[in-house]
Amino acid sequence: MEKKKVRIVLDAMGGDFAPHCAVEGAVLACRDYPVEITLVGNREAIMPHLRRLNATSGVPIILHHTTQVIDMGDNPLEVVRKKKNSSIRAGLELVLANKGDAFVSAGNSGAVASGSIFVLKRISGIDRPAIAAVLPTLAGQVVVADTGANSVVKPFHLVQFAIMASAYSTLYLNCKKPRVGLLSNGSEDSKGTDIIREAHKLLKNSSLNYVGYIEGRDVFRSAADVVVCDGFTGNIVLKVAEGVAESVATGLKQEAKKDILSMIGALLSKKSFLRVRQRFDYEEYGGAPLLGVNAPVILAHGRSNSHAIKNAVKAAMDYTLSNVVSHIQHDLEINRDLQSIGKKPSFIKRMLQIARD
Question: Which runs of E-coded beta strand occur in the chain?
């Protein structure tokens, strides 16, 4: 019996090269993976690309027509509510209605994050969902969370990021008992801000495999399998890593063309360079999951080409099959008392407590 295919809802209008790269990536994914894809977007813009790829029939792709597009410059907090017929809002609602198992978009990441919280809701016990990026290291991969969803955090938010990212690393990357590190400006207990130091104390008492502070230089040295930070810092780490990788690749090409010996050396080393490039290429990772909402949501890079979209679809498929959401719920229950430390009770709860006292 044929296995049931994972149903992926793909935002066809999101990204710098939409819709043609989104459509082409969807077709490639359908031909290589056991998925069914619903393309969400403007029918007139999508159909020419499906015809060009001979994918109007015989390929498990459904088209869901929408008339609005959320642009990169739109306000994420407002636009999801106002543009109800946008590809992002409609796509998330398809998942909510159980017409899809996961949502993928290369569009406005802030709108995808706020829309996911608004439509799909947060996992019970999660205050702030986090974007988890998988980055290459010298020995494998590291999960960095948060990388853009939360600029301002409290200590217990960082604990929640650690719990979610650890579950993701265990199930998605098959890392047994992942080592969790807290990004700081030094390894001593006295380092970091007040928030970092308080989170450090909480994580020490958690059920996680916490290894302490991680400095920026150690992120890519395999010092930890999970690195936790606020979204402002994490986004800078992500963008700096992309910039360094691109600069090194460009520098190597420039040096290889300087003289005949360099050209011969580059030719002999071509396969090694290609392997390193593939290992550090964001296109190979597809996208970053939004951890903490009630369904798999993958945020692809805004510059995603068709290959990157195909890999984002695979990331969504693997995330769905790994059942990460249920595992996060389980780990939250184990660390429930720990997370409550530092949370301020609501006004009503405080009044009830005063009345009881």
Answer: 6-11, 35-41, 61-65, 102-105, 130-136, 141-145, 179-183, 209-214, 226-228, 287-291, 297-300
